[in-house]
């Protein structure tokens, strides 16, 4: 009988990726609100320029969150990134349904469709980082 082990590192990685994305997005939104460039939290954002900028930083932070998750997950980086991307897809679909008048429909649909590709980009950046780090480490090893 095969013993099942709980993938604690994977769970921690996904949670860290979510928290990273939430904190960065929330801080950016608060700063933009204080600068008068965004409406207050939980108020509709219907101006196209504001929505486009929000889409930009949401996308950037989704990539960063996926990178953080992949970094923590290590051997399960692809799984962590896929979970994050799927979570983005599902949550934006739910958000589109529940908050249909909170932002233009195209914005929420775009965020939902970009969930998995943005997470994948974060995972690919982690793989490139890991490769570069391994090459750098190999160059510093003394030859015997």
Structure notes:
- The protein has 144 residues and is mostly helical.
- The protein has a domain of 81 residues.
- 77% of the residues lie in helices and 0% in strands.
- It contains 4 helices and no strands.
- The protein is globular, with a radius of gyration of 18 Å.
- The model has no long low-confidence stretch (mean pLDDT 90).
Structural descriptors:
mainly alpha, 4 helices, single chain, about 140 residues, globular
Write the layout of secondary structure elements.
Blueprint: H1 8-34, H2 48-73, H3 77-98, H4 105-140
Helix pairs in contact: 1-2, 1-3, 2-3, 2-4, 3-4
Poorly predicted regions: none
Beta-strand content: under 5%
Provide the structure class. mainly alpha
Report the helical percentage: over 70%
Radius of gyration: 18 Å
Total number of helices: 4
Quick one: overall form? globular
Q: List the secondary-structure elements in sequence, H or E.
A: HHHH
How would you briefly describe this protein structure?
It contains four helices and no strands. With 144 residues, the protein is an all-alpha fold. The protein has a domain of 81 residues.
């Amino acid at each position: 009988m095969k013993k099942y082990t709980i993938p604690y590192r994977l769970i921690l990685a996904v949670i860290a990726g979510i928290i990273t994305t939430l904190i960065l997005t929330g801080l950016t939104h608060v700063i933009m609100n204080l600068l008068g460039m965004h409406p207050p939290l939980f108020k509709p954002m219907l101006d196209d320029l504001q929505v486009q900028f929000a889409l930009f930083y949401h996308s950037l932070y989704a990539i960063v969150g996926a990178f953080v998750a992949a970094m923590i997950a290590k051997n399960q980086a692809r799984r962590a990134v896929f979970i994050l991307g799927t979570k983005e897809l599902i949550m934006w679909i739910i958000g589109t349904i529940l908050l249909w008048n909170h932002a233009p429909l195209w914005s929420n649909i775009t965020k939902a469709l970009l969930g998995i590709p943005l997470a994948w980009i974060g995972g690919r950046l982690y793989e490139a980082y890991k490769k570069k780090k391994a090459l750098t480490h190999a160059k510093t090893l003394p030859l015997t």
